[in-house]
């Protein structure tokens, strides 16, 4: 019992440190273990038997495992193909390691049931609902995609993907306006740079964007409705991740979980107004100011088999505007902005090994190109590398519903790892994104890794017209993969790219210094120590649950470039 509690607290304090220490213990106790098996750690967390998977290929195999049913619904990302194509125009090609070999090793994996006898009575191999219901069900009650599996999930997700297909594009102008009014106008109105806590300011900006895109609610006027919704979403998150997971409510005191459940009920009432507007008829005299979300749902139309109702809209609005969505986006945007405006290139931090010979930021480099499309391609490359090194959500859970075998495809040393049915697989996506079997210089920030040519940070290679197709580095798991990939991935990327493009276009400059070694390691800026020391610093300097972010404020000076 004490061991289980110790493991649970250690894991929630720092998954990175917990996993690395267990891997080290495993290697010392079994020096002849094969690399594949040693990348999976078994632990007891919150009274569950959990297998923590850190291999990129093993995570990919589990995330993209196909249903054995032949249902008619097409899942457009089930094999990761469409997910990969989202960055098709910014892939890096001709990527080789220093000895000329491809950095992607032949250690791909497959997953299959231990008992090969097929039966339609058997459950799917992996389920999300069973893994998350205990922690999420009371705070994000259905119907919602988060707590669904199988055919019902596939149909429901296909409906929502159709409804939100054009939301990223239709939201772009609003995101740009909010960035201007809520960030730029407040920080760079004067001549002197202002020092800010970057994460805190971006977190506030993300609230404005999410509430604007999905609810058409702003801070204008007294802002009471805006602030109340923000408070309710924060209370929900604190209740969900409370270390005292018991609902107690008295006239004098209520537990965090009890307050969180109360917030769910109040949010349902507040979001119900938006849902009723979304479902209203297309009358020209509607008095409310429609947000991009509601307009997209109306324009998408509702076919006869699409049973959109108020409960469904409310449930997903609670997810789309949740505090965890806010924190995840703020985390990713913080790392992205730091990479663009504070990091400085050097010869060791570009894919070619040749630096620009200047101390300008990536934002300044990108700004030097007048062609908007080239700017976008470069921003996409930096964002993809940011997703790889600094994903906001470090892992996802799956309940294993049959005895399964994860098999390596290493021709020299094939191996299988068994997970019994009823136990959990926790896919450590943050670790998989730094898998040295997949990525060359896996722990380093290589900003041009995903550019469409073997590029350096110089202009000549960015202007290359015909990229090679020798090698395409696989995309990271910042938004998952396969059938349960994040529905909001496209919008999240649009938000990050639009905010960044606006700052670049408006000649914003930032100056700052990252002194915490764990934050530097999180960003992948320098490799001055071995991996063990990096992990210890990351445990000290980062919060990893529910999302990754620096523990202490990251201060930067924000101003406008003077001509």
From TrEMBL:
Cited InterPro entries: Cyt_P450, Cyt_P450_CS, Cyt_P450_sf
Superkingdom, natural source: Eukaryota
Segments of this protein annotated with the region Disordered: 94-120
Biased composition (Basic residues): 105-117
Entry keyword set: Heme, Iron, Metal-binding, Monooxygenase, Oxidoreductase
SUPFAM superfamilies named among the record's database cross-references: Cytochrome P450
GO biological process terms held by the UniProt record: sterol metabolic process
Coiled coil: none
Protein's UniProt keywords contain Iron: yes
Keyword Protease among record annotations: no
CDD domains in UniProt: cytochrome_P450
Pfam families: p450
MF GO annotations: heme binding; iron ion binding; monooxygenase activity; oxidoreductase activity, acting on paired donors, with incorporation or reduction of molecular oxygen
Family to which this protein belongs: Belongs to the cytochrome P450 family.
Official protein name in the record: Cytochrome P450
Organism: Knufia peltigerae
